Amino acid sequence: MRMKQLNEIRGKLLRCPKPQILNPLLGELAKSSAPQNALLLYNQMLHHPLSYNHYTFTHALKACSSLPAHRVKGLEIHARVIKSGHYSDIFIQNCLLHLYFLQNDVVSASLVFESISFPDVVSWTSIVSGLSKSGFAAEAINKFSFMDINPNSATLVSALSACSSLRSLLRGRAIHAYGLKNMIENNLVFDNAMLDVYAKCGSLANAKHLFVNMPKRDVISCTTMLGAYARGGRCEEAVALFRKMVRVGEVEPNEGTVVTALSACASVGALSLGEWLHSYIDKRCDLVVNCNLGNALINMYVKCGDINMAIRVFNTVSQKDIISWGTVICGLAMNGRGKQAVQLFARMLIEGVAPDDVTFVGLLSACSHEGLVNEGLVFFKAMKDIYGIVPQVRHYGCMIDMYGRAGLLEEAEAFLRGMPVEAEGPIWGSLLQACKTHGDDNMFKRIKTHILNNTSVGIGTLALLSNIYATSERWDDSNKVRDAMRRTESRKMPGCSWIELRASMSID
Question: Is 251 part of any domain?
């Protein structure tokens, strides 16, 4: 605020220190792009006891809500409200409730709510919404169930958001039914919230029915439905919906929509569709291949096997994050270019990006496939000692696979038995396969005995053991393992492959 404006405000305070004159100005400043100026005026008003009233505090609290760094100021205003005897005002209490949730102070917000004698619909909506957004979805639903007044659409949307977080389809449908019965006109935000419940709960048929019958849809509706298809494994329908959005022009896809569609392409390895999406992005001047969109493109090309294009996109992303680096490193490892993965890791460190646990999975996998045992050991040690990352089962799995591929079976077995976490079936299977490859029959028998006596070993590992016997024409042993698999009443998911037929497309 300029000095001239400050002098004008001081002049107003001296000439006419009345709240009905100053409060409108305080409200305008609180809603402006510089709400800190409202707090300057508020401080001036406090020097004149007759210049403020309970409305003054609501404007000051709204200014604090726009300034997350002003936590102490909010506490100061709260104390002043109590001291001045205005705390029982419902508008002030609702402002405090909103402020504390914005500051992620769930305890203080809950205390404020409990102190409200007769909460209104704003109070109830704030507590339900605040608890849901703060990660206390169950508590949000519990509060909603105790409402003693009729909720409005905002309350219902907040409750549905909590149902989405809890994957509570039954509660969500009950709230949806209440909304349909009591809300007079169609509400797009409410419909989108229910669509999200169906999507998160995996109820694709209900989600599609609601989506098709919505009187109006926006980009959030379409993105939510896209995500539902993608999570439900129906990625072709997700891409088809995106293409329809573009063709019909009902809504224009935003960045989130495109990212979801790219994720669907990555899931089914649909390279041609992914390339079509890439060309669509290039034709949209408002879509910038930034971190999120760039990462989605990189992931799509990696999953579809076009690592060269993934690297090209990676190099065009100006602000790379750890996901960008990790995706390419893992992609290089998956596509048999382990040495390049190690080189890229070195470049990442030079640019000052700290690796995470996913980065090390890709790095250790690269060392495994390239036979870089010494380098793998160095990286594994650095992960623990330098970067403070606690190794997970998948890191140990990469190390055992690395030893096994290099023929260092004794080291692999010692490493496995020294693991601080229980080895999963695929790790035992990896060592079993290494024993077979390198002809160590004694270790093969030990590992086989452990697998057959371990009830926690998955069906996939047993199938691997049966297949190893079959390739050696040990049919009786193979059948015995198959019999053991049948007794578990589990079935291995059959493998499948994807091919694209006539997938070429164009954008008008």
Answer: no
Tokens of 223: 């993105």
d(CA 268, CA 245): 20
User: 332 Cβ partners below 8 Å, 6+ apart?
Assistant: 307, 338, 340, 341, 344, 362, 366
| DSSP string across 319-368 | S--HHHHHHHHHHHHHTT-HHHHHHHHHHHHHTTPPP-HHHHHHHHHHHH
Higher local confidence (pLDDT), 49 or 309: 309
φ/ψ of residue 310, rounded to 5: -60, -40
Q: Which of 238, 151, 139, 148 lies closest to 187, judged by CA?
A: 151
Domain boundary among 156, 183, 216: 216
Number of Cβ atoms within 10 Å of the Cβ of 381: 10
For residue 508, pLDDT beyond 60: no
Helix axes 188-200, 153-166, angle to 10 degrees: 10
DSSP state of 135: T
- Give how far Cα 175 sits from Cα of 138, 168, 209, Å: 15, 11, 17
**Dihedral angle at the C-alpha atoms of 181, 186, 189, 192, nearest 10 degrees?**
80
Distance of alpha carbon 119 from alpha carbon 99, whole angstroms:
16
Same domain, 405 and 470: yes
Query: How many Cα atoms occupy the beta-carbon half-sphere of 207 within 13 Å?
Result: 27
Instruction: Give the dihedral sign, CA 21/24/30/33.
Output: negative
Q: From CA 15, how far away is CA 13, in angstroms rounded? A: 6
Average pLDDT over residues 106-129: 95
The verdict on residue 507 lying in a domain is: no
Start-end of H helices in 373-458:
373-385, 393-405, 409-417, 425-438, 441-453
pLDDT at 15 over 80: no
In degrees, to the nearest 5, what angle opens at C-alpha 192 toward C-alphas 190 and 193? 65
pLDDT (average), residues 336-346:
93
- 6 with 112, same domain? yes
Segment 480-489 long-range contacts (CB within 8 Å, at least 24 positions apart): 481/452, 484/452, 485/459, 488/459, 488/462
255, 292 in Cβ contact below 8 A?
Answer: yes
Residue 87 lies in a domain: yes
* Number of structural domains found in the chain: 3
Whether 165 and 137 have beta carbons less than 8 Å apart is answered as yes
| Residue whose entry in the numeric block shows the structure tokens 């009233």 | 53
Are 398 and 375 contacting, i.e. CB atoms less than 8 angstroms apart? Answer: no
387: nearest Cα among 345, 330, 344, 419: 345
Domain containing 158 equals 119-216
Which phi and psi angles does 506 have, rounded to 5°? -140, 160
Q: Is the pTM of this model over 0.70?
A: yes
In a domain, 68, yes or no: yes
CA atoms of 34 and 31, how far apart (whole Å): 8
Q: How far is CA 100 from CA 281, 311, 485, in A?
A: 40, 45, 56
Residue 12: band (very low, low, confident or very high) from pLDDT cuts 50, 70, 90: low
